[in-house]
Design brief:
123 residues; mainly alpha; 7 helices
């Protein structure tokens, strides 16, 4: 999809509708689309974490495809193996990674929110 087409869509953010303020994820979709089109500079302007989100989604997709390929291989049964359930991320990482991501989004939002209120940043 084209980044220009995406920018023309109406705001779908419920937080924005209720408060009039951008949410911690505002600009993320446009950032991921711009990064996917190779426009890294514009991606960082839309949302500083967009590139990290895109790379995470790509890494998780590759890991999922590898695990599916591994589980469907000729020498493996199609049953669930406990050693494969943890996948690419260990159990400890599954505990702290959501907290780390939430903290990063909150930090970016707290830095950008005063810029939005001052009229300097238009998401």
């Amino acid at each position: 999809m084209s980044p220009d087409w995406l920018a023309a869509l109406p705001t779908l953010c419920p937080f924005r509708w209720v408060t009039g303020l951008p949410c911690p994820g505002c600009g993320l979709t446009r950032s991921v689309v711009a990064a996917a089109h190779g426009d890294i500079g514009q991606a960082l302007v839309f949302h500083p974490l967009g590139l990290a989100v895109l790379l995470t989604l790509l890494a998780l997709s590759v890991a999922e495809l590898r695990s599916v390929r591994f589980s469907l291989g000729p020498t493996k049964s199609r049953g669930c193996d406990a050693s494969q359930e943890s996948g690419m991320l260990g159990l400890r990482a599954r505990r702290w990674l959501p907290w780390l991501a939430s903290g990063a989004f909150l930090l970016v939002w707290l830095v950008r929110l005063p810029l939005f209120v001052a009229g300097v940043w238009v998401y």
